[in-house]
Write a structure and sequence with these properties.
The chain is an alpha+beta fold. The chain folds into 2 domains: about 1-190, Nucleotidyltransferase, domain 5; about 195-305, no CATH class. About 35% of the residues lie in helices and about 25% in strands. It has helices at about 60-65, 70, 80-90, 100-115, 130-135, 145-150, 165-180, 220-225, 225-230, 290-330, and strands at about 1-10, 25-35, 40-50, 95-100, 125-130, 190, 200-205, 210-215, 245-250, 255-260, 265-275, 280-290. A 6-stranded mixed β-sheet has the order 3-2-1-4-5-6. A 6-stranded antiparallel β-sheet has the order 7-8-12-11-10-9, covered by helices on one side. The chain is globular, with a radius of gyration of 24 Å.
């Protein structure tokens, strides 16, 4: 197994009005290091990319990476650089590693925009080293900047930050320092290409929670009509549980429920509703054991949400009646 630790720099439009549909961020630099199974660095990759879409550097991008557009014009086109990068990655079994969640998504988005074949036909497992550091040294939720972590681990700073190669280089140093086999079981999954069918759906179990990534549906309503999506199962004994509180939402994007397993206790369910670039819907569902107090908080949250919806319907009804009365009075 080889570990491909990479980082990207990208450019964008200075304003949303001129942002190109399908390519909000155009990659302008790829940097990577390759580690073997013994966490030894065995290769380096670094190339600039000549812009094809955004021909002016965003003011923040240029200031952050200390680069000018004329420097980028010396690079090759994205597809040429990407082919060289994939050749450099090699045909051996590999696992991508990044700092944070965005790079693998934007890499695939650029590949799609420029007409390249996808890296995979479904979700891609990878290591989010930023998340691994949080699991190892914090509570698993806080996300620290790369330079903060380098300082905290007392890793020597021998090259500048904020370029693709240097950030990949330092990410590799962090992974080599903290990457125990137990910690590296905490895989992340990039879902730029969601599962195409039921057979491709992912059901993943980790130390203290489970994750389900659904296939694509035409609508959110179609997704929730699917028994696998709407169920709440105990991920330890795999029983389908009766919910204490059924799935509810306050914003239409995140849904919650709580249930009780007689063998293992209270469970919290969370559903994130995601959409593909083509407008299809898929679901990312997580379930985890929680305390009774945490379950009770969800019950209270649902009750409060229900009262707010009732108040909203009541106010909406009052406005409609007032508008009707006004129209009648004006008619008279």
């Amino acid at each position: 197994m080889n570990y491909i630790i990479f980082d990207l720099e990208w450019n964008q439009s200075d304003d949303e009005e001129h942002s190109v549909r399908g390519l909000p961020f155009e990659i302008i630099e790829i940097g990577a290091v390759k580690y073997n199974e013994h966490m030894e660095q065995i290769g380096e990759f670094h190339e600039l990319i000549r812009p094809s879409v955004y021909h002016h550097l965003h003011r923040i991008t240029g200031r952050l990476i200390h680069m000018r557009m004329r420097d980028l014009r010396a690079g090759d086109r994205f597809t040429v650089v990407m082919e060289r990068f994939l050749t450099w990655c090699g045909k051996e079994e590999r696992l991508f590693c990044t700092w944070g969640m965005m790079d693998l998504t934007e890499l695939q988005r650029n590949m799609k925009y420029f007409g390249m074949a996808p890296l995979a036909q479904g979700p891609i497992p990878f290591l989010d080293v930023q998340k691994l550091y949080s699991i190892a040294y914090q509570e698993g939720k806080t996300r620290r900047a790369l330079e903060y972590v380098i300082d905290a681990l007392e890793i020597p700073k021998d090259i500048p930050f904020h370029r693709a190669f240097s950030d990949a280089y330092y990410t590799g140093k962090v992974l080599a320092r903290i990457g125990t086999p137990e910690l590296m079981r905490n895989l992340s999954y990039d879902v730029f290409h969601p599962p195409l069918n039921r057979e491709g759906e992912l059901k993943l179990q980790f130390d203290n929670y489970a994750k389900y990534i659904s296939r694509q549906f035409d609508t959110k309503e179609d997704a929730f009509a699917d028994p696998e999506v709407s169920s709440c199962k105990c991920y330890l004994c795999h029983r389908n549980l009766k919910k204490i509180v059924k799935w509810f939402t306050t914003n239409g994007r995140q849904y919650y429920c709580t249930a009780y397993c007689e063998k293992h206790g209270y469970l919290k369910g969370k559903i994130r509703v995601r959409r593909t670039d083509e407008g299809m819907t898929y679901i990312v569902k997580t379930t985890k054991l929680v305390s009774k107090e945490e379950s009770d908080e969800i019950v209270q949250h649902e009750a409060h949400s229900r009262e707010l919806r009732k108040l909203h319907r009541s106010n909406r009804g009052k406005r409609k009646r007032a508008q009707k009365d006004t129209a009648l009075s004006q008619g008279l």
